[in-house]
Amino acid sequence: MEPDVLTTSQAAKLLGISVRTAQLLVESGSLTSWKTPGGHRRVSRADVIALMKQTNPAVAAASAVVVVLAPTARLPLYERQLSSAAECSGDLHSEALSASFAVGARLPAAVVVDLSEDNAERRAFLGNLTANPAVGPARIIVVGGPAMREADANSGPARIDSPQDLPEALRKILMDAPEVAPIGMSQGFPVPANEGQRLIALERTGLVDTAPEETFDRLTWLASRNLGMPISLMTLLTPDRQWFKSRQGLGMRETPRSWAFCNETILQRGVFSVENLAVDKRYASNPAVAGDPHFRFYAGAPVLDRNGFPLGSICVIDYEPRKLNSEQTQTLSALAALASDEVRLRAADRELRWALTELGRTRKP
Q1: By percentage, how much of the chain surpasses pLDDT 70?
Q2: How would you class 281 by CB atoms within 10 Å of its CB: exposed for 0-12, middle for 13-18, buried for 19 or more?
Q3: Tally of domains in the chain
């Protein structure tokens, strides 16, 4: 008789995923668990079976994408507010049709509808969202508009007064389960509130600890060559390591996560740079700054997966203080976007191959 209670390893075998991915599903709250008196994690077979009925757990994950429908004139305001919310990536629209396609293409973490001015198209869009069960777990946030009745406020969309309130509302929605603490996570560096979900997204790419690839090496070579930097990297941030998928001008393959300047980069969606690491209080005592190899300049842009989770960065480093001009900043951002596109294409290809395999199985007599 099959047991009703499973170890993490048994759950991983049943799901057809790695033990590490199963651990991350537990850590993010996607798979409910508890501890035995001896401190060992256990999960319910029923919960594992329920997860199996969803999309392939190896490729399914929460989303960090936030779809916004707002007047054209207010989109820059939303872009600024979303840039300060480390846990999400914005997808902004001024027309209901394009916003609907965005929601349908990949269920977002949240959908924001601006009703600061009366607009029939946006009101109809909101009505369709709230009435459509296919929207699933995506949270709906209304900005402005008339006050809600108490019953609607308890069961319907969340309401905030202005776009300035959006970052805090999103952090509450996107935050990992409160009892979850990713394995090996130090408190010595900043992490996004949905770090557990981000780590699942990273594990799902299958990129960590893989061999160098020309596709990514071209991008870091271009970054080093075009920006005139001695070092260029594509980094991936695991719970306790900063691992380099591609590297130019640097011998080491990884560093402790606590050394990573990219910890700040993944908390935003633009280019993050530090002109002189030695005089920045966040990094002056960093072993790579205070000691060999005595880094002095850093700039990086996040690499995002198709669900908007930052996996790491494309970054450049110098031994002398530097400052990027606007064209160099745009170049670095573009190279990170190209790396993100490559990661997304691989994910789409992997999902297609998995779906075809499953289709073949179901057609067998």
Answers
A1: 82
A2: exposed
A3: 3
